[in-house]
Amino acid sequence: MILEDDGYYEISPVEVVPGDIVVYSKPPVVISHVALAVSNVPELSDGSSNIRVLSQWGRDGEYFHDYRDVPYWLGTPVKFYSERRKL
């Protein structure tokens, strides 16, 4: 709800640019974690993206990491959001 109120909309992983948001989920919690995208290199042959993010892992500090590489207790990446203006 906060993302929508702030003008964010859902995008695909290949559309992610620095400043976009990655949302994680761990059932039964709808949103368990968020991260800020810092880069996206669509270099993989299967069409997937190499998204790097910055996030805080509880009391463990802030980390730059691959968007899929988080502790299990933070959940898994499920959605990507941007607030860029649509053309």
Structure notes:
The chain has 87 residues and is mainly beta. The chain has one domain (2-82). It is built from 1 helix and 6 strands. The protein has one helix at 2-5, and strands at residues 9-11, 21-26, 29-41, 50-56, 62-66, 76-82. The longest helix has 4 residues, at 2-5. The chain is globular. The mean pLDDT is 88.
Topology, element by element:
Layout: H1 2-5, E1 9-11, E2 21-26, E3 29-41, E4 50-56, E5 62-66, E6 76-82
Antiparallel strand pairs: 1-6, 2-3, 2-6, 3-4, 4-5
What key attributes describe this structure?
6 strands; single chain; six-stranded antiparallel beta sheet; 1 helix; 87 residues; mainly beta
- The SSE order reads HEEEEEE
Count every helix, treating DSSP H or I runs of 4 or more residues as helices.
1
End-to-end gap:
23 Å
Summarize the amount of helix as a percent range.
under 10%
Query: Could you tell me the strand content as a percent range?
Result: over 45%
- Spatial extent as radius of gyration: 13 Å
Class of secondary structure makeup: mainly beta
Strand order of the largest sheet: 1-6-2-3-4-5
| Largest beta-sheet details | 6 strands, antiparallel
Q: Which regions have little confidence, pLDDT < 50, spanning 5+ residues?
A: none
**Average pLDDT score:** 88
User: Globular, elongated, flat, extended or rod-shaped: what is the shape?
Assistant: globular
Task: List the domain count as a whole number.
Answer: 1
- Number of beta-strand segments: 6
